[in-house]
Design goal:
Helix 3 packs parallel to helix 4. The radius of gyration is 20 Å and the shape is globular. The chain contains twelve helices and twelve strands. Strands 3-2-4-1-5-6-7 form a seven-stranded parallel β-sheet, with helices on both faces. A five-stranded antiparallel β-sheet has the order 8-12-9-10-11, covered by helices on one side. The termini are far apart. The protein is α/β, with parallel strands linked by helices. Strand 6, helix 9 and strand 7 form a beta-alpha-beta unit.
């Protein structure tokens, strides 16, 4: 029996809304004949990211019919917390089909620590068949430039006291640093929203957490030369134990981090008014500790489904596909943050519902 090459796997990590799914869409749309399996780790009750990726053809044949086993979505929260229960069985299935796969793409949740996932590639059955081609950390440059991930504790505290949206002590800066510490490559996103001074400041911030060998590259709305991000052959699983993170434990103590500080709530609405919905969402992120909003929106005057993304006070939206004849035209939103009052948020969002749909 001939020896088989190990399947390269690229792990894409980054904070909530940094642009990971946009980058994956670009990779899949420009795969150049590569047979790519995708694992999506969704934080929240709705498989929003999986649906967005399916919108670019992954998991479908040439006629648009969905094929089983092309996209794997782990929907029970942080991938590093569910790695044994869900990640391992998925990898076993992919390994069994290794002749059909050229590359594996793994998008972690914005709350996931990449190090435990990389370490999982040292499990004997996985290690003999797969290798981590690279860990790619996507950095939201405008968010980082705003000081949300400052390494200086006094600066973090000053911002916390000055910003009503950050009225609590947050682990976000530590998570940001841990995602950088695991990186083999850093992709800077949303550069069109900042000036050269802000970009330089973020590059300096990242460099403080990175070895000199790790490069920083820019992406334009997720677009980047695939030769820069695939085929790095980093074999990250061999050196991940040397990369120090805030969540390392001595004496073999069991990894037990959790995300109790974060909440995810799901809101379902009928047809809504677009401008009214966006205005309400803008008000909600100022009144509540909301880090991320994402979902699908049904509009009365449009046959297309609207995708909405919100990071902090910044919202983007676009139409991804027509509503199918066999599906209900409902609005589905996921809101991720801290200390969220689901009843109050849902009641506020009801204000976007059109009178005839109420």
């Amino acid at each position: 029996m001939r020896a088989q090459a190990r399947i390269p796997a690229t792990i894409v990590t980054g904070f909530l809304g940094s642009g990971k799914t946009t980058l994956l869409r670009h990779i899949l749309a420009n795969a150049g004949g590569r047979r790519i399996a995708v694992i999506v780790n969704e934080f929240g009750e709705l498989g929003i990211d999986g649906e967005i990726l399916r919108g670019c053809g992954i998991g479908c044949d040439e006629d648009g019919r969905e094929q089983a086993g092309q996209l794997f979505e782990l929907a029970n929260g942080c991938l590093c917390c569910t790695v044994q229960e869900e990640f391992y069985p998925v990898m076993r299935e992919l390994i069994a089909r290794r002749d059909d796969i050229d590359h594996i793409l793994i998008e972690t949740s914005g709350l996931a620590l990449p190090k435990p996932l990389v370490q999982a590639f040292n499990w004997p059955e996985v290690k003999t068949a797969c290798t981590v081609d690279a860990v790619i950390t996507v950095v939201d440059v405008p968010a980082a430039a705003a000081g949300q991930f400052a390494a200086n504790p006094s600066a973090v505290d000053a911002q916390r006291r000055a910003d009503p949206n950050l009225d609590h002590e947050s682990p976000l800066h530590e998570l940001f640093e841990d995602q950088l510490s695991a990186a083999d490559l850093v992709v800077l996103s949303k550069l069109d929203l900042v000036d050269d001074e802000a970009r330089a400041a973020v590059e300096t911030l990242c460099r403080e957490e990175l070895p000199s060998a790790v490069k920083l590259v820019a992406a334009d709305h997720g677009r980047i030369d695939l030769d820069l991000i695939l085929g790095l052959e980093a074999a990250a699983e061999d050196s991940i134990h040397l990369r120090v993170s805030h969540h390392d434990h001595e004496d073999g103590e069991e990894h037990d981090h959790n995300h109790e500080a974060f909440q995810s709530i799901s809101v379902e609405l009928p047809v809504v008014d677009r401008e009214r919905l966006l205005a309400i969402l803008h008000d909600l992120v100022q009144a509540h500790t909301l880090y991320r909003v994402k979902g699908f929106v049904a509009l009365a005057d449009k046959p297309m489904r609207l995708v909405v993304h919100g990071v902090g006070r910044r919202f983007d939206s676009y139409f991804d596909r027509r509503w199918r004849a066999d599906e209900a035209r409902h609005t589905h939103l996921v809101l991720i943050g801290q200390d969220l009052d689901a009843a109050r948020l849902t009641e506020a969002l009801q204000g976007a519902v059109l009178a005839e749909a109420a």
